[in-house]
């Protein structure tokens, strides 16, 4: 076991984040409470408060965390509480409640009391600060960090790193339910929020009435997911479908992508993968000239004119996001605890990992990564963030089905961050699941869908 050390900066950060031991004594023997209620700045109709939770719900590590919470003021909403969970992992939630409840889902907000929180390690007051990772990865899953940046982040977090697993976050959610004084909630999660929503429903099946999983990340982690195999291979389907929309391209964009990746090498292959996934947020058609026409850029590059593609690689380059809006440190800490890898779990000693990764890579057929390559799969950020991460106690990884409650699964068929294949996989684990596919939509239906079909499905499901 490695020696645990706290830097002076970490001590100061923990002192601020934990709120002192006295905070843990604010509710001795009682249920959790929301404290310091006040109007949310700039968000009329919502009250902001603080939920104090244990730093470690297992009791191994003392201390507390203060999590900001935003609640709608319609306390007597006829259909009860809807806990809306943001993604990443790394995004806060409090600052987004007006956009989600008032602007995107006002029909739902008439019947439900929306609640959002800054999950542990996120948000303006609690974001984990890992400067190297933040500069190199920003909000990306895919950009390749340097080993030094990963090790710096692990040193900063020290012995607290395993305390940002989904297990701990799920326990926070139930403390929030208790503080709200409700026996059940609707839990609605987007992207990584779908992962935490499903995991909450599995851990506390009697405390959920319905579940919405939007842009779905399956709740059972696998080595295949950490290699991003589904995301890599889904690009052929999505780009071909985009090219088939009139006026049709007249060429195969997947073949163009495969050719460019193989002629530019693995490092650029990762950059191209990252760029295409980032690009979907600007242009779910993948062909709009105003956004850059990524399909056209790939075709031009294959034809010997790479300037357009190079411009897009630079324009959509990852890194440097404000940790208050997305914490790369929290992202790494959570994924490295939760995920399962070709080398096993977070408990696998670091020296064993690269040999096991190399062995797995040698057994992958070309079809497992096409139109990309095995080298792209092993050099992207999911793997490279956790390859040098210190061995630690892993989070749980439930393989069983979702509970027997109504579950709505939403996914755009142009989504490359959480491809439709993942939604189908999770739907098979939902005994009362309904999968709604939104044609032409990319990631985050409730937050970003340009039409209303997906949101109409949510409204119908919740009514």
Automatic annotation (TrEMBL):
Keyword Protease annotated? yes
Checking InterPro entries in the record gives: AB_hydrolase_1 (IPR000073), AB_hydrolase_fold (IPR029058), Pept_S33_TAP-like_C (IPR013595), Peptidase_S33 (IPR002410), Pro_iminopeptidase (IPR005944)
The UniProt entry's GO CC annotations, sorted and at most eight, read:
cytoplasm
Per UniProt, residues of the AB hydrolase-1 domain are 81-225
Question: Which keywords has UniProt assigned to this entry?
Answer: Aminopeptidase, Cytoplasm, Hydrolase, Protease, Signal
Q: Cite the Peptidase S33 tripeptidyl aminopeptidase-like C-terminal domain residue spans from the record.
A: 384-463
Q: What is its EC number?
A: 3.4.11.5
Question: Which residues does UniProt assign to the signal peptide?
Answer: 1-23
SUPFAM superfamilies from the entry? alpha/beta-Hydrolases
Q: What is its main location?
A: cytoplasm
- GO function terms (MF aspect): aminopeptidase activity
Where is this gene product found? Cytoplasm
Q: Which reaction does it catalyse?
A: Release of N-terminal proline from a peptide
Q: Which GO terms describe its biological process?
A: proteolysis
The text of the family note is: Belongs to the peptidase S33 family.
State the name under which the record lists this protein: prolyl aminopeptidase
Q: What is the lineage of its organism?
A: Bacteria, Bacillati, Actinomycetota, Actinomycetes, Pseudonocardiales
């Amino acid at each position: 076991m490695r020696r645990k050390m706290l830097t002076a900066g970490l001590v100061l950060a923990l002192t601020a984040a934990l709120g002192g031991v006295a905070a843990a004594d604010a509710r001795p023997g009682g249920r959790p409470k929301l404290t310091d209620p006040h109007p949310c700045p700039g968000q009329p109709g919502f009250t902001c408060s603080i939920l104090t939770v244990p730093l470690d719900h297992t009791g191994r590590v003392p201390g507390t965390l203060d999590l900001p919470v935003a609640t709608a003021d319609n306390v007597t909403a006829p259909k009860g509480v809807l806990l809306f969970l943001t993604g990443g992992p790394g995004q806060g939630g409090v600052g987004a409640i007006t956009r989600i409840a008032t602007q995107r889902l006002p029909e739902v907000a008439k019947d439900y009391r929306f609640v959002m929180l800054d999950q542990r390690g996120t948000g303006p007051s609690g974001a984990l600060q890992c400067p190297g990772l933040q500069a190199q990865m920003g909000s990306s899953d895919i950009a390749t960090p340097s080993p030094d940046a990963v090790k710096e982040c692990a040193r900063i977090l020290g012995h607290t790193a395993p305390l940002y697993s989904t297990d701990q976050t799920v326990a926070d959610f139930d403390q929030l339910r208790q503080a709200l004084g409700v026996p059940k909630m609707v839990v609605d999660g987007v992207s990584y929020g779908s992962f935490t929503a499903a995991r909450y429903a599995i851990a506390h099946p009697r405390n959920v009435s319905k579940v919405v999983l939007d842009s779905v990340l399956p709740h059972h982690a696998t080595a295949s997911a950490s290699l991003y195999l589904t995301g890599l291979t889904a690009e052929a389907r999505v780009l071909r479908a985009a090219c088939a929309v009139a006026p049709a391209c007249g060429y195969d964009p997947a073949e163009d992508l495969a050719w460019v990746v193989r002629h530019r090498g693995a490092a650029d292959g990762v950059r191209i993968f990252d760029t295409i996934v980032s690009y979907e947020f600007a242009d779910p058609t993948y062909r709009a000239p105003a956004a850059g026409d990524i399909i056209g850029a790939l075709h031009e590059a294959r034809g010997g004119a790479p300037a357009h593609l190079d411009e897009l690689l630079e324009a959509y380059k990852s890194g440097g996001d404000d940790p208050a809006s997305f914490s790369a440190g929290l992202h790494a800490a959570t994924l490295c605890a939760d995920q399962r890898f070709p080398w096993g779990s977070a408990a696998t000693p670091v020296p064993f990992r690269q040999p096991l990764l190399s062995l797995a890579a040698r057994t992958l057929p070309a079809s497992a990564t096409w139109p990309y390559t095995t080298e792209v799969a092993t050099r992207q950020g999911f793997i490279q963030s956790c390859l040098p991460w210190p061995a630690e106690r892993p989070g749980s990884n439930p393989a069983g089905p979702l509970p027997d409650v109504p579950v709505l699964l939403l996914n755009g068929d142009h989504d490359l961050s959480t491809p439709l294949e993942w939604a189908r996989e999770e739907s098979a684990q939902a005994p009362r699941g309904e999968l709604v596919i939104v044609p032409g939509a990319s990631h985050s239906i409730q937050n970003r869908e340009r039409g209303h079909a997906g949101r109409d499905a949510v409204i119908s499901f919740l009514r």
